[in-house]
Design a protein that fits this description.
This protein has 352 residues and is an alpha/beta fold. It has helices at residues 2-17, 38-46, 79-86, 92-101, 112-128, 179-199, 220-231, 264-277, 294-299, 331-349; strands spanning 24-29, 32-36, 52-53, 131-135, 143-148, 153-163, 205-212, 236-242, 255-258, 282-285, 304-305, 307-308.
């Protein structure tokens, strides 16, 4: 009897905490908002509609353009330090960790699997070193933040991000390895973090690595974090570079540069960084409303840019299904994005 009561209490608590107990405010475009229940939101996901869940955002958006006033460099200048450093990047850890991440049935943010996968990832990031914290949300999965403190401009932060959750668009409890979307970005920035921290380079600005929860639920994790940073006086966010899908190249390969809901100056620097630190060409394309977490920063007037795996948005037809598997990931291609992220982090942070 006691056991049953206990189970009922736990079940009750779980239900009480479910973000989908009440309708959510869903934004489908710059001027299109609607209160929706879980069934309606799932329908959007099945139809591959892109949306932001803005229920928990209280701050007026695009209110400050706060860091567009913070300088970013116009071009790369640290080739002599960054080029040799790129040789330290390896596919070894990305392969091992992606294998583990894709062996969770799924990494759905609003369920036990997403909670467990975020706990696993937290231990991995902590094992690399630095200052690693969990950023909790109103759903089970936590985001993860790893911070490398800068020296003379420590209050200014450069962010390198990816999203850790995955989704099966037909059934949240179904299989969703999420290898390319976005296990690839998750392990690419993990390797970037490892190489940067082990380099012991003294940076001017601070650099943070963010692994967002709940991207597939409408950019939930990044929205919570971007709002919390926008509310702070300090540290200022200089720019976010977001990696979402970096392991599935088209032929011929190119780095896609997203030109909508991103910052032009940051995208221009990104093109030059791709030129300086990879052998790939760039190709501009538009990604649409709420395409990925870079949009959460953009909405708060904070610079963001996104280097995509190819020049075609829907080239990888496996995503959000069981077919988005480990075997489909091209690690040589993925490593080019480690180069890009390392180049971006160091060029924007600056070296003492
Ligand atoms: C660790 O990073 C968090 C931000 O992610 C910051 O609030 C905290 O002060 C840092 N702690 C140390 C010891 O640097
Ligand atoms: C940014 O670039 C796009 C073209 O890529 C252009 O349409 C837009 O006006 C530019 N925005 C700003 C603020 O310069
Ligand atoms: Zn994604």
């Amino acid at each position: 009897m006691k056991v049953i009561l206990f189970i009922l209490i736990i079940l009750g608590l779980a239900l009480a905490n479910n973000i989908y107990n009440d309708k959510r405010l869903i934004s489908l475009g710059d001027r299109e908002q609607e209160w929706m229940d879980e069934w309606q939101i799932n329908k959007l996901i099945k139809e591959k509609r892109r949306f932001r869940d803005i229920t928990d955002l209280t701050l007026p958006q695009i209110n400050s353009r706060q860091s567009v006033s913070t300088n970013i460099p116009a071009k790369p200048t640290y080739q002599n330090i960054i080029t040799p450093l790129l040789k330290k990047a390896s596919a070894e850890m990305p392969k091992t960790i992606l294998k583990e991440l894709t062996s969770f049935p799924n990494r759905y943010f609003n369920d036990e699997n997403g909670l467990k996968s975020s706990e696993y990832l937290f231990e991995i990031v902590k094992g690399i070193g630095g200052n690693v914290t969990k950023f909790t949300h109103k759903f089970p999965q936590s985001s993860i933040i790893a911070r490398i403190e800068g020296e003379s401009l420590a209050e200014e932060t450069v962010i390198i991000s990816a999203h850790q959750d995955s989704i099966n668009q037909m059934d949240h409890q179904g299989i969703a390895p999420g290898a390319d979307d976005d296990g690839s970005g998750t392990v690419a920035i993990l390797e970037t973090f490892r190489v940067l921290i082990q380099s012991n380079i003294k940076l001017k600005r601070s650099v943070e690595f963010h692994w967002y929860a709940g991207e597939e639920g409408g950019l939930l994790g990044s929205a919570d974090i971007a709002q919390s940073y926008a509310l702070r006086k300090k540290p200022t966010v200089v720019a976010d570079l977001h990696l979402d899908m970096v392991g599935f190249p088209a032929s011929p390969p190119a780095v896609g540069i997203v030109t909508d809901y991103t910052d032009n100056a940051t995208s221009e620097l990104l093109r030059k960084i791709v030129g300086a630190y990879t052998d790939l060409p760039t190709a501009d394309f538009t990604c649409g409303y709420a395409c990925s977490d870079h949009a959460s920063w953009h909405e708060f007037g904070i610079r963001s840019a996104i280097p995509f795996e190819s020049q075609h948005l829907d080239y990888n037809g496996n995503i959000h299904t069981p077919a988005d598997a480990y075997e489909t990931v091209d690690f040589d291609h993925l490593l080019k994005y480690v180069n890009i992220a390392l180049g971006f982090a160091i060029e924007v942070a600056g070296i003492e």
